[in-house]
DNA sequence: TTATGCGGGAGCA
DNA sequence: TGCTCCCGCATAA
């Protein structure tokens, strides 16, 4: 709750932000105001602010202090030392606009650094079945210019104002980029000996980290601590998992319950598909007026679930809709999308019930640089490891990320065959679970075909896949003849 | 190597 | 003149 006080710049002790109320949106201020209104309560951090909005964070909010954002924002000089201005760099997309079998598209995060960003452009699409190149889709969401974010610190608060509505998909979240960069140091293990050695080191490392991961959902590592971990284990792939867990906690990734599907407008509207309408489970405001764009893209795990309760109060003349209006708007939007989107997309909210995203990852998501990464994620019904992970980890929580790394060449060794056999056995069991899941999933996608492909896997690539849940590292197989990496052998490597 | 913040400078109304 | 964005540099991680 943001309250005006008689004495400007007097800030009450920070408390958790309650659901937005009417008084909250009545406060009118601009980042350029000589004096911004003091607040008594602060917003939760929202790293996917979109549309014209204003937020007030507590000065001790780490994300706010870092001026963090899910969007790729670069610094822009506005010749005002008291106000930091950032503009959006857009998103890196595949020039061929390829899609993963699960419907996800490639939408990487542009590097903030100009030099790094230049290197990104023109690179081959990480989808190995795609000959496209990465190219930047510039943000033109603010009157043809990039969307801008403004940060201003005043008193014990950090004021944030966004101008413009992003006209492009969300890039992968910052944590993903950082993790990938870290993991890029992990080299493909080309021999069984190397694999086993790598695996042993990996397991040891994960074991050492296990003690902290369970707290990831409740507490977050300080940036310094995370950096220490990163530095101390930069050569260890699983480090990213731990780091991602920390990031998840930092960014309040939620909105998708691991315990089950909740097809409420809240979940639906938190999706990337609804970039401009924000509903919270409690029906609070989180509203912005524009529904200007809708992308044919599955939500990125890391990108789509920052369920910050930060309030969107419309600027200028925009007014908060009443609750019935909100519901009506949701129904309209839902109806519209049901008629304009492919079936699996219109049923996207079902996907958002995923509590794990790793199991169905296309084998095509295999990087040309030995590291595959995609932001797309799989429908829950195709997710096999989720159930096992859930069983193995009662306190697991939704992971918004999934990455996998090729650690084997197709010519696997005997040990690999054993793993494959074990995976096959699990696969049969898992297929039954999938079928049951599909019965309960009124979303039409090509499950039977996928199952068939799964069952016909003969030779396979193997991947380590960290689903982010309980630091379980799965060995996954990729049939050469199939584009699908739909079955997670779920030979969990617990740590 | 990359993210971040600062500041110079060009373009435009 | 004021505002905008682009770009380069320095610094930190």
Automatic annotation (TrEMBL):
InterPro entries documented for this protein: GCM, GCM_dom_sf, GCM_large, GCM_small, Tscrpt_reg_GCM
GO annotation, biological process: gliogenesis
Region (Disordered): 207-239, 305-327
Residue intervals of the GCM domain: 27-183
Superkingdom in the source lineage: Eukaryota
Record has Transport as a keyword: no
Assigned keywords, A-Z: Developmental protein, DNA-binding, Nucleus, Transcription, Transcription regulation
Transmembrane segments: none
Pfam families: GCM
UniProt GO cellular component terms: nucleus
Molecular function (Gene Ontology), one example: DNA-binding transcription activator activity, RNA polymerase II-specific
Listed name of the protein: Gcm
Species lineage: Eukaryota, Metazoa, Ecdysozoa, Arthropoda, Hexapoda
């Amino acid at each position: 709750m943001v309250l005006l006080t008689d004495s400007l710049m007097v800030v009450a002790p920070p408390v958790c932000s309650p659901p937005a109320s009417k008084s909250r949106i009545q406060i009118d201020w601009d980042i350029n105001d000589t004096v911004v209104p003091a607040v008594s309560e602060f917003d939760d951090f929202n790293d996917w602010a979109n549309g014209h909005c204003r937020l007030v964070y507590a000065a001790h909010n780490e994300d706010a202090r870092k001026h963090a954002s899910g969007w790729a924002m670069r610094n822009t000089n506005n010749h005002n030392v008291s106000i930091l201005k950032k503009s959006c760099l857009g998103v890196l997309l595949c020039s061929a606009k390829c899609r993963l079998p699960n419907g996800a598209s490639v939408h990487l995060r542009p590097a903030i650094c100009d030099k790094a960003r230049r290197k990104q452009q023109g690179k081959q699409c990480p989808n190995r079945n795609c000959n496209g190149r990465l190219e930047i889709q510039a943000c033109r969401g603010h009157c043809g210019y990039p969307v801008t974010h403004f940060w201003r610190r005043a008193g014990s608060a950090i004021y944030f104002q966004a101008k413009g509505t992003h006209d492009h998909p969300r890039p992968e979240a910052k944590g993903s980029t950082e993790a990938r960069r870290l993991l890029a140091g992990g080299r493909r293990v080309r021999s069984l000996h190397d694999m086993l050695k790598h695996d042993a080191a990996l397991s040891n490392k994960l074991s050492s980290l296990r003690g902290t991961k369970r707290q990831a959902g409740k507490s977050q590592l300080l940036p310094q601590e995370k950096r220490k971990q990163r530095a101390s284990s930069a050569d260890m792939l699983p480090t990213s998992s731990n780091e991602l867990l920390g990031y998840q906690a930092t960014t309040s990734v939620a909105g998708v319950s691991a315990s089950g599907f909740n097809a409420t407008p809240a979940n639906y509207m938190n999706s990337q598909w609804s970039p401009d309408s924000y509903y919270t489970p409690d029906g609070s405001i989180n509203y912005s007026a524009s529904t200007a764009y809708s992308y044919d893209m599955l939500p990125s795990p890391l990108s789509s679930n920052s369920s910050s309760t930060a309030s969107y109060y419309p600027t200028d003349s925009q007014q908060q809709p009443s609750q019935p209006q909100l519901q009506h708007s949701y129904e309209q939007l839902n109806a519209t999308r049901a008629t304009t989107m492919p079936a699996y997309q219109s049923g996207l909210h079902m996907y958002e019930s995923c509590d794990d995203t790793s199991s169905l990852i296309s084998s095509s998501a295999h990087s040309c640089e030995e590291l595959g990464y995609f932001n797309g994620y799989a429908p829950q019904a195709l997710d096999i490891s989720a159930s096992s992970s859930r069983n193995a980890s009662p306190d697991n929580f939704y992971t918004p990320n999934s990455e996998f790394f090729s650690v084997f060449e197709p010519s696997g060794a005997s040990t690999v065959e054993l793993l494959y056999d074990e995976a096959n056995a699990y696969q049969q069991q898992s297929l039954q679970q999938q079928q049951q899941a599909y019965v309960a999933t009124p979303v039409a996608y090509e499950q039977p075909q996928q199952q068939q492909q799964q069952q016909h896997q003969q030779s396979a690539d193997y991947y380590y896949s960290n689903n982010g849940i309980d630091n379980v590292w799965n060995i996954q197989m990729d049939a050469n003849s199939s584009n699908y990496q739909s079955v997670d052998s779920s030979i969990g490597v617990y740590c």
